[in-house]
What does this fold into?
Amino acid sequence: MDFTIRPLDVERDIPAVAALRRRCFPYEITLERHLLWSAERTPEQARARWFAAESGGRIIGYARAALVVTTGLAGQGTLIVMVDPGHRRRGAGSALADAAEAHLADAGAVVVRAAGPEDPAAPFAERRGYLPRSTSSHQVLDLAGLPPVPPRPDGVELRPASAYADDPRPVHAVDEAVSADEPGDAPTDSSPYRVWLETVWEDPRVDRDLSLMVLSGGEPIGIVAILSDGERTLRHSITGTVRAHRGRGIATYAKTAALHRARERGFTASYTENDTTNAPMLAINERLGYRPHATETVYRRDL
It folds into this structure.
């Protein structure tokens, strides 16, 4: 098959990239404005570079390579390679990966991580010398079948994240505390408030009206962070409570309440993702009615 690898023109090519992502990752919230925003907000020190595979004037695949700047470990690279299902096994994915890995090596990466659905990512990754490191379960829920909201834990109240629009520092504090305990292959450093504000809070997919803060005695102790397409589909970004308040059923209560609020606003489907070692949250999701949708693996290769 004839194709060319070229630098991706972010502004011109984003519509095609977004359509490709929706076909390959239906469990993600893909918005053109988010992809543009992400490209603009990527820190310069990440050395991010995009590549496109083009055939017959059409983008059939793309890759994104960047250094990870949210960890204290030096030389950590991240790689995304995506090829349209109808154009796979013809060399485009390998050519994109070659270009992206060469850029990462030149940028100083000594380790590269990439993630994708086990099928077809596993054989492609293993042929290139990547080894599986961790797995995550992507699940989907039809909001029509939601169970009732459980009784509210004593002393707990819920408040939309939008209530903190003028000063989201309390949201940052709880998000950081909960995220620190998320399992994964590479440690994630704490994000300074300004960095978090620009790369998390201002993400166009964040639905601040659906996202909830959990308070006890007026103190923020938990969070339900939700991304949405603004119409029918949402995705839970993170749900959790700070350590001192765990074991009280707060996460189950808050997550169920958030899903009911979303259904009342016309949303019909919810996706979520958890590391397969995160048994407590997987159990909560099962009780809510989430069902497995895809298994995604993180692969690592030393350059």
